[in-house]
Amino acid sequence: MSRFEESLAADLAARGKAAHFPAAVYVLAPLAAILFQVYVPRFLEALSYLELPLLTAIYFALMRRKPASGAFIGCVVGLAQDALSPHPLGMNGISKTLSCYFAASLSLRFDVENTLLRFLLGFFFYLFHQFFFWSLSRGLLGEQSDFPIPQTVISAFLNAVIAAALFSFLDRFRRDD
């Protein structure tokens, strides 16, 4: 086997490994993100654009590398966020479930340890989540609202910057078996 083939085989084996975290991290990180999302914008309205529950759910879905686990993580985080938000129950749950499912599916194909890729994934999945949430609001609830494209793109960029930093912070708690 050539060096290139050995390197490729090692890369594929490392890419397929799911990261593990202590149980407390799986509970405390999304809980802190949800509480931040619910309470901080009441005092600092400038931070209302942050979608930390989505970013933490995306991170765990990317690191678990299993679409079913990603969907479950997104569902639990989304429904917990719905329970504390003024939105109808299930809107965030559905949006985050789909976002995390697709994130976990992408993690099977790409090296999600790369900071630039994490930035791009944060940007893309924020846009995906917002668009899907808007679509659900129009389709299921009959709300007649426009999709604010410029504001959403700016928020996606800011969330992507936070995602890159948050993902690096959460990497500290990872246990590689």
Key phrases:
177 residues; 7 helices; mainly alpha
What's the topology here?
Layout: H1 3-15, H2 23-43, H3 52-64, H4 67-84, H5 91-107, H6 115-140, H7 149-171
Helix pairs in contact: 2-3, 2-4, 3-4, 3-5, 3-7, 4-5, 5-6, 6-7
What do these coordinates show?
74% of the residues lie in helices and 0% in strands. It contains seven helices and no strands. The chain has helices at residues 3-15, 23-43, 52-64, 67-84, 91-107, 115-140, 149-171. The longest helix has 26 residues, at 115-140. The chain is globular and about 60 Å long. It starts with a helix and ends in a 6-residue tail after the last helix.
What's this entry about, in short?
The protein is 74% helix and 0% strand. With 177 residues, the chain is mostly helical.
- General shape: globular
Order of helix and strand elements from N to C terminus? HHHHHHH
Specify the structural class.
mainly alpha
Mean of all residue-level pLDDT scores:
88
Count of folded domains: 1
Supply Rg. 17 Å
Largest sheet: none
